[in-house]
Each structure stands twice: as C-alpha cells, then as structure tokens.
C-alpha cells in the first residue's frame, strides 16, 4: 500500500485586531455666495464625490407641468454659456468624471465623481452647469422626447406600475405625492425650454443649496478652489419654500391592476409611517429588516424557501419627504412577485406571517442577525466617497443633524428585541395596509376576495 506524502501548508491567516469605526462627520461651512458646504476628508479616497442639493422640490412644479424638475435636472449637463452639450460631455470625459442628476420630492440632486487630480476642472464644469445652464430649445425638446419614450416602458413594468398605483391610492389627488415623480405623458409634453428656464430662475440659487464634498483632500486647497468655481455662482437670497403637511389614507383595501394573461402577480403592500425624525425609526429599521430585509427574513423563509411562491419578498422603509420642523413621512412597504395561481395562498401566508409576528414577536436570534447585518457591515457599505457623500446629502435633504448616521448605528446596536417587534407590528398593521396587485384579475380576484383583507377593486392597466 502506497504511503501518502506529507504536505506542509502555510499557516492559516488570522484576523487582525478590529478597529473602531464610526460614520464620518463632515466639517460644515458657508461660502460667500450663501452656498452651504459640507466637506469630509477621507484619506486614500482618490475619487472625490460631490453632491449638490437644490431646493427645487416636486411640489414646487407649476400646475400641469409635472416632470419639469426632472427635465431641468437632466438639462444641467446639456451645455452652458461656455460649452455646447457635446463640448460639455467631452470636457467631463477628459476629466474622467461622471455627472448624474435626478429630481425627487425633496429637491434636485447633482452627483459628480472625479479623480482628485482632475477636481479643479470638474468643479469648474459643475459650477458652470449651475451658474449658467444653456437650456437650449433643441436640447430640452430632445429630453422631453426621451422622457415621453420612457413612460410606456415604465407602464409596462409591473413593479413601476404597482408603485404608481400605490401612490395614487395613498395620497389625495391634490398632493404631488399622488402623481408620478417624473410626470405623465400629458404633463411632460407641455414642457419647453422657457418653462424650464422659469423654473430654474425661481428655485435654483446658492443661498438655498448645499454642496457635499468627500474624498482625499490632502493636497487640495479646497477654499481657493471653491472660490473660483462654486463660489462664482450667484443668485438671490430668497428663503426655501415651506413644506406642506402630508395626509394619507391607509384604510385596508386591495387594488388589482388587470393584466390579462400575466403569469406572475406583482405585489406591493404599503402605507405611510414614521420617518427618521421619529425616535421609533431605529427600532422600525431593525424590525422591518427581520420581517423582510434579507434572504433569512421571515417573509422569505415562508414564501420563498418553504412554499416556493416567489424568488424573494422584501420589506422596507423609504423616506419620502421631511420638513425643517422635524415632521415627515416614509413609505413602509412589502414588495415581490408570485406566480399567478398561487397569488391567493401567497397573500394568505403573508398575512399569517404578520399576525404571527404580532402574537409571538421576534426572537433574540433574529434581532442579533439583523444588528450584525445592518451595523457590522456598515464600514464596507461606506468604503467609497460616493456612498458617504450620498448619505450626507440625504441627511441634508431630510433636515437631520450631521452626526445622524453615526448615532443611528449606535441606536440600532442598542435596540432590543421587544422594541423591534413593537415597531414592526406598528409599521405593518394587518388591517391598515393598501395592497396593489398587478396581474390577471380573472384568475386572482376571487381568491383575493376570499381572504377578507379589504375591499377589492379592479382597474384596467393602461
């Protein structure tokens, strides 16, 4: 019998000593033109991230012109008083920079990423876009056409269609939150360059804007650089718009958006609840994560692993808008898709999970896994300058303190199982959920009615 040769391996690598970590705190200041500045030095981050938050919320859009904030946001990169649209894009490319923008309920955001060695040039381009955007007729017309082309694709997407219907159901028709963020075909087609310019002139100015700059600023004279770029942007000192209160109707009911022949049903179950200003938020985050935040959550264990109804179901909380006085709303929702024949059983089991949560509560093991996943991986989540800058910008939009994120992780770690259970139960009460189903009404209407989870209404898909 042949004797096996002895092999010597290198010793197994051992983990190093854990270093304490906290979400970075920015240095806050104000430029001479009134622009609020948050800077955050992150050694080793050679790609600098810049976020600019403009106080141009969706509810400020003129009547009948929903979507104009989105068109304006996109038009910032379509030429300035110094460069045509093509030249501006070429100059960004030479810098190795990317410039993105979007509009949402709190306002308009511009996001720049650039190697620190090209920061002066890129900041100059960003400043030009803010200071003197061209808003050329031809470019705005092209952006409007592009947006109109997007709308049918969004309508055909079950998840987007469900989100549109849920907003329409939750909020009164007079509220901007009830209507699509990027406008409808009827409103977008009315937008022209003159309207975009008027919206810009009324709402975009440095005195009501904030810039966040994150990266390795070791050899950067940021004060001088800002004076030559964003500091050259001028405008009036008008105050930001007041934030109107938000009302919502979360009476338990079911809306089926009929898609004849659909082989799957898209589920979106939601209501509005506490935002980050409420002291229940950390417990709500933790409880919601245990309910449906990951592959090991309760909803996934039942609906995906045990029953095989779905590839995955998620529960989440998303802040919609906050106000300076500390009030605000968040969307609390459960989303996923199931095969059409099992729509009724899947919803029945989902409600059973919610009722069991209320009756028996979470386990300490579930709570511990959630804390580990939410707090333990935070240093990885914020490895890039862009991730830090985006979170700081979120804090600005939501009128939170600069140390909010760092404090949140401490609060999550200190939240107990009982608190997390209570928050999750209050977030998803079984009799106060609006359920939107995008699917084949002929197959799913009767099984859903039999569940008794609310009045069922069928609407026709566009």
Automatic annotation (TrEMBL):
Protein name (database record): M16 family metallopeptidase
SUPFAM superfamilies assigned to the protein according to its UniProt record, in alphabetical order: LuxS/MPP-like metallohydrolase (SSF63411)
Occurrences of domain Peptidase M16 N-terminal (ranges): 42-171
PANTHER family associated with the record: METALLOPROTEASE, PROCESSING PROTEASE
Region (Disordered): 1-26
Superkingdom, natural source: Bacteria
TM region(s), chain numbering: none
Domain Peptidase M16 C-terminal: 190-374
